TrEMBL record:
It comes from Methylobacterium crusticola. This is DNA polymerase IV. PANTHER family: DNA POLYMERASE KAPPA, DNA REPAIR POLYMERASE UMUC / TRANSFERASE FAMILY MEMBER. It is found in: Cytoplasm. Monomer. Its main location: cytoplasm. It is an enzyme of class 2 (transferase).
Amino acid sequence: MSTDGSPQDAPAGPVRKIIHIDMDAFYASVEQRDDPALRGRPIAVGGARMRGVVAAASYEARAFGVRSAMPSATARRLCPDLVFVKPRFDAYRAISEEIRAVFAEHTALIEPVALDEAYLDVTENRRGLASATEVARAIRAAILARTGLVASAGVSYNKFLAKVASDYRKPDALFVITPAQGPRFVEDLPIGRFHGVGPVTEAKMRRLGILTGRDLKARPLEELVAAFGSAGPYYHAVARGIDDRPVRAHRIRKSLGAESTFPDDATALPVLSERLRPILDKVWDAAAAKEMRARTVTLKLKFSDFAQITRARSLPAPVADRAALERVALGLLADAFPLRRSVRLIGVTLSAFEHGPAEGPRQLGLGL
């Protein structure tokens, strides 16, 4: 395929050139790169204990059905030879910075989505390459040469199709969807492969008889809004290959949080309070390192039956220091009592940010 498709059926107005880069099994691939004994073996990055969760799985493990966010016990049942590896987030962050440096050689319009993926607008590229396909090819080669890791790339005229393209033939793939191909490509796309359609929404769409992009395109906007609320206009547009969202080079982060699943459930306030404190350390240190000051603190409790609740408090001014954060969080925890079930997970999220250093003295935690 080529980015120089026929203008027929192309979207109105100037055509953008968007690349979505997605590292293949990033965490697991880093571990296999750094430890030759792990190469070719099914590995899971995450907790091996009974209550742990898989953060990432190698392609060898995925062949057995192991997926990220899967309970470790389930992963072990699916793949008895699975090797669990403790995550090394400092290493992943350092490699992510190397990869982003490659991006910056080609464009300033970079929208990171996670450590292992980003959107790039290369409508104008810094090296003067003739097409977005050539840019994507150069980026993949540079990433492999500098890090020893493989990236898949999707190239198209909008973010939705670039994301779909990067996943279409993974791993180790470069796939292009031209303006001429986009609308017809979407029609044949299974609804479960639409970015933004999760398992719950997919099940609902299937109940409504929406199995492909063609089925989605046949539904009027009013029906989609009635069924899916504010997401209705998005589904209506992408079913036609339309997505006007720009690549945002400096996205404002809306929330920052951390959570922990415990090796055993607990119900006592003193025990849960003690387990809460290391989570607060992580959240505060991350916010302080980024000079992000929050006015809203949200506490999440997940119970033994996997039901969960959240409690939030918004303050008139940003949380002043680590001690103030602990006071608010412990107050939210106390407000959740009495508990009817034992707690297996606690999470804390900060939001409603004001960016920049606080005026006057402020207690800072150590950076992560």
